[in-house]
Amino acid sequence: MPSYEFTCPTCGGFDRRHPMAEVPESVPCPRCRRQARRRISGGVLLRSGSAGTRLLDATARTAAEPSLVAAPPPRRSPRVTRNPLHRKLPRS
Ligand SMILES: [Zn+2]
Hints:
92 residues, alpha+beta, four-stranded antiparallel sheet, 1 helix, elongated, binds zinc ion
């Protein structure tokens, strides 16, 4: 089901999914219940459970609940190239 953008005059934009045949021109705002008009855009075609929806859900989740970090990332050893041609490169 495609997702459509609506804009509330006081709260701003939000997305709502509707079947293509039943897209209303305005819907009540989920926050203040005023009529929010549909923004004309391409619409986003995403199947629920698809990689795209999972990515969007994970991104939205980390915005509100960032994942906790228990330790600093492991130190990396400096990269050493083994290509013999790189020995001729100038050293800084
Ligand atoms: Zn509103």
